[in-house]
Design brief:
homodimer; alpha/beta
């Protein structure tokens, strides 16, 4: 059982595990009676990009494992340019920890990696939470050059996390205020912080998004093979990965519940952190083979 | 406080209230610390069409008011051929009971009536639950002549509630089994049952669906005016009112959470009655002005 001091997003020390040819960075905190929850991060995000309001709430009843995929943060290796390559690393990491089964929270890119892991090794997951993500062959996935995103990403006045407030949250005042609070929470961790992702990380991950958009065979047919109980979550004004992708996920996955949030974009789980944590906790607490909770 | 004997879907006596020129039939049972929950019924449905597995669960923490609109069941008057006409009757009924504010659960046609009531008299509702329904200008609303529905509705071997099992549930064995259990539950009430709706009821309600499909002005613009906290629920395989209608509702209503269920059709709330009752109860328990719960 972790001590109180280290049982939080802000205080948990960064740890490392050697697995195969790589040394992976991770943080592990919280405790619960169910399986640990593997947390797979978004585009260019590191261990520092998990919102304490979400992960500390989840950690009250679940052991969390935050993970830097290869080449991200302080994990060694090169960032793969396919989701499949990232899934291979995440599975190697779990093997390195000696975990044969866990739950997973995959956000954005992390949700794609989680789907790929479930396809390759179904037994690795019990229950899955997919937030702000898309199926293979989804639409309009992370096209950062479109005007609604480019105007923020190319604005030199928006430095560091300030750009996240713009691109993860909806334009409404209420959503922007939630974004500002989110950014403040991300800054609360003052020691043992991660290096910011270099342009090469973004470049490889963008290549992975482009490959993930490709349809191979019947569109969405892979989803039928993922029979885990799944909770799909998205904000209705997500500009980075439109909510239509979550409609497809929940309509084609055979065992998925969809939850959408109003007035929110890509960071809906951070904007509605109380609700999301409550719903995710209830979903993970279920022992049913059926997703509805 | 109702006694235990009458505090259930099966046992609650049918009551009547005179309001304006009509005498409306209703049942009232359960108790809670919040406002009563007005339950607005589906196409041709009467007081007897509420699933005890849902309404008895809700009644554990909420006072329920099941309502027969004009011309349905034992309510007097003619069935209006517009949703607006039905909303006028439902508001008159609440006036007759002396209720100035309540929560609402509108299922299918009932969800359209609830939207119209919220537009006409916003103060009448605190929180709203809209299940298996559609916005004005929605698509493919109750086209009973399409093959997937007509094959059941025109099958002479399917009598009484047996047709509901086919048209409210998905074709999968799991959903059909849930449908059979639903039909069994509907039959548990043995006394004080309602007359089955006559063809004239269906005819007027179908006219109301056709009118509701018409767009007036900018499509979905009315939804922006309904600012209540709303929970939208639908099954992803709904053939009677496709789930796309709930996508529109939740994306255009400014303050709505969407919950969709897998492996289920129009009767998703009955198929997943444990989950639906839990989610609806949690939603209604919230005092927030924001829908996420």
């Amino acid at each position: 059982m972790p001590s109180n001091k280290t049982s939080s997003t802000i205080a948990a020390p960064t740890k490392f595990v050697q697995a195969g040819s790589e040394r992976y960075a991770y943080r592990r905190f919280g405790s619960g009676t169910k399986l640990p929850l593997l947390c797979l991060q978004h585009f260019t995000g590191t261990l520092d990009n998990w919102d304490p309001a979400v992960t500390d709430s989840l950690a009250e009843s679940t052991e969390l494992i935050l993970f830097d995929n290869a080449g991200v943060g302080r994990s060694s290796g090169a960032v793969p340019n396919t989701v499949a390559g990232m899934a291979t690393h995440a599975l190697a990491f779990l093997d390195g920890l000696g975990l044969t089964m866990c739950d997973v929270l995959g956000f954005s890119l992390g949700g794609m990696v989680a789907q790929q892991m479930a396809l390759e090794r179904p037994s690795i997951f019990r229950r899955m939470i997919l937030v702000g993500t898309a199926p293979r062959g989804g639409e309009d996935i992370m096209h950062l050059d479109k005007p609604s995103l480019a105007k923020h990403l190319q604005n030199p006045a928006l430095k560091g996390y300030a750009v996240l407030q713009k691109i993860f949250f909806a334009p409404a005042e209420s959503s922007q205020a939630a974004g500002a609070a989110f950014v403040e929470r991300l800054m609360r961790r003052s020691e043992d912080r991660e290096p910011v992702s270099a342009p090469a990380v973004a470049q490889a991950q963008m290549a992975a998004f482009r490959e993930w958009e490709q349809v191979s065979g019947e569109r969405f047919s892979d989803l039928k093979k993922i029979r885990h109980p799944i909770l799909v979550v998205q904000g209705v004004f997500d500009e980075m990965i439109p909510v239509s992708n979550s409609y497809w996920l929940s309509a084609h996955l055979p065992n998925a519940v969809l939850l959408t949030y109003p007035d929110s974009g890509h960071g809906s789980l951070f904007q509605f952190h109380d609700s999301f944590s409550r719903q995710a906790t209830a979903f993970l607490a279920s022992d049913s083979e059926s997703a509805p909770y």
